Amino acid sequence: MNEVRAISIFVRAATLGNLRKAAVDQGISPQAASQAVMQLEKSLGVRLFHRTTRKLSLTEEGQRLLLSVEPALATLSSAIDDARRAKDEVAGPLRVSAPTALGRAVLWPSIVAFAARYPDVQLDVRFDDHFTDLVSDRADVGFRGGSPLAGGAIARRLLPIQLIVCASPAYIERHGAPQSIDDLDAHRCTGYRRANTGKQAPWEFLIGNEIVYRDIAATLCVNDIDAETEAVLSGVAIGQLGSFSAVAHIRAGRLVPLLTQHLTQRESIYIYYRHRTEQPLRVRTFIDFMIGQLADSTGFFLGPAELRA
Fold it and tell me: What residue ranges are annotated as transmembrane (predicted)?
């Protein structure tokens, strides 16, 4: 027996003074309503109504039960109504997970713009490079760079990630520019140590139709993409940087792209979320907003004409 359902029917029958009217109010048959009340009486071991063919009235036990359950039932009904309204309001808590470098370089301006537009959403943004899945991270929405992750979440591609070998004009003036991949052995280069493995990432290049990987000796190796970008900007070394970190500096003339004929575009930035039918409106609105802001935005990768130039 569904006791909450039975108590709801009991309260409506007591309020309306008629079991048939209570059945109509609850959207069930009179027989189902009568059976629910009788099962409730059997479960409690007391009679709740005096019944005649024309009249329904509460027993003393029924009156006591009504006085006890009415406030609790009203509270429960109010809570259910609040939950339904929340589903249709752009308000409430929203937890977002993203890696540090992507969060700062790509996502943060759009997140701030969303917060300004929807002030009733309480954003909890976690920058963490050790992404597992939305459930483990207790996140409503996640962002990651790379290949789509396996799991139950939906992955929507936002932007390509180009790996661009680049140097500052000052570095090139002092040391010259490599004309081939092999020339890199004679240059000072940066390295990036991956957070998940602790190993230095190899550089990758497109040669013909094949992607090849080279272990490049690092003059300076760091585990922070922003720090690596700063090192390349300062002229300390050549680096292979993600387009989301490098493109703005290239367009401003602070960095020069090198060996662009070997540039790879194997990975992308993805937004992850659960099935849309399971999401409250605040989550769906955030997803749509971020897709509208970022999907294929040319501010974060070089176009064909720029690469040719």
Answer: none
